[in-house]
Amino acid sequence: MGEAGDAADFDRALEAAGLSPDARDRAAALAVFRYLRRAQEALRQAEEGEDEPG
Amino acid sequence: MSPADLPLPEAARALRRGALSARDLIATHLDRIVRRDGDVRAFVYLDREAALAAAGAADAALAAGTDLGPLHGIPFAVKDLIDVAGMPTRCGSRASPTGPAAAHAAVVTRLVAAGAVPFGKVATYEYALTGPSFDGPTPPPRNPWSAGHATSGSSSGAAAAVAAGLVRVALGTDTGGSVRSPAAWCGVVGLKPSRGLLPMAGVVPLSPGLDHLGVLAASVPEAASVLDALAPETGAAGALGLGVAGLSVGYARDWIADDPAASPAVVRALDDAAAALSMAGARIVPVGMPDYALAEAAGAVILHAEALKVHTVLASRWQDYGRQARQSLSAGVGLTPQDMARAWRQGHRIAGEIDAILARHDVILTATTLTAAPALPSPPAEETAWSPMRTLPFNLTGHPAISVPMGFDGGLPLGLQIIGRRGDDASVCRVGAAFEAATGHGAARPYLPD
Prior knowledge:
The structure holds two protein chains of two kinds. Helix content of chain A is 80%, strand content 0%. By secondary structure, chain A is mainly alpha-helical. The longest helix of chain A is centred in the last third of the chain and has 29 residues. The termini of chain A are far apart. Chain B is 38% helix and 14% strand.
């Protein structure tokens, strides 16, 4: 999932939550959303690492 | 010396021998706030007449032989996220109600029952999220050591007020470091007790799973005195004189030194702190810590998911929230219950790793932040940003932690963080007090004209 995919996901999630930020808020919030995406991925990988045998 | 500068035990003695009245003590603080807080901007609400009346009642009780203990007649400030009956809880936001709270938060009730007098509300980052922000109902506090540098937050007003000598003790909240980090950057003591020790009723939540009540104070004994009034079972004040001889201190140096973002001055101060505790008789043993990045990832996911859930009116009151708050809250829209469950599983695993270290050592020693306070951008930033703290893991795990002053970098304070076993809040106070006594760092105060 690239940056464009992140942005599209973010916009869909905002819409679902009933939020409509202006461009400035959207840009800043998208940066945090991407940070959280990396955090989600790190947590997923950590669990997969724990599940690996040996 | 002004009565406002008397450490709480000395003020308590003066009150009992009749050398000082609670009314005069509070009046001195109120007068100092008038003179200094125009620059510091720590207080967002003061009720002078109610405070003087409550202090007068404390004097009358003492004169009649009713002594409620060490905090009888002592003023304290309260972060504007915590209810005080008769005062508004604005949470640093235009989105919050402006009317007075109907009742005290449970922790305020406990301090009032111990004779202490809540006399004002101190600033918070908006809903304890991020800051400093300049579009809220009041401008952010300034760091008393340097107006051009950050205070950190979110208990920014409490830390600035204590550092500026406006009050000796204040209640704050700590969800990711919001007591300890501003304490470090403002050069005061910040205590985050064990999770679950203090009741959260009457406190506006940020992230219920990570939220902790906390105490900001001019010294460790004063923080311990407040903790004892809030939770006598901790026995914090009673442990203060025990020193550190024979204690084993796990030294998490590499957790800081290996991070390229850490300033050399912080690492040097941390080494000096370890040496000071060694000279005082503690055994210093290097320890490896859990992966910080993973702890931060787990904490950030929980915090953003829970905060968005708390703010059910975000969509309908969007324009009433400040930019940083709505940016931070809206960023959590992509988080799922599965993410939360995964984050908590990692949190429990990390807590187990910390428990294993603390099975071998009495406390862990590390830095509170990676740097001293950074300069504030000019013009002020309106985008949300993280401070370089090392505090969030212990909100995730629930271990008690205290930040105590450990020296300076370029005239700006640095904080030493001491972490203890869950439920052993007394040991973090004990080691903090021993460090404070051995070094004298906690006695330094910024010059502010009276």
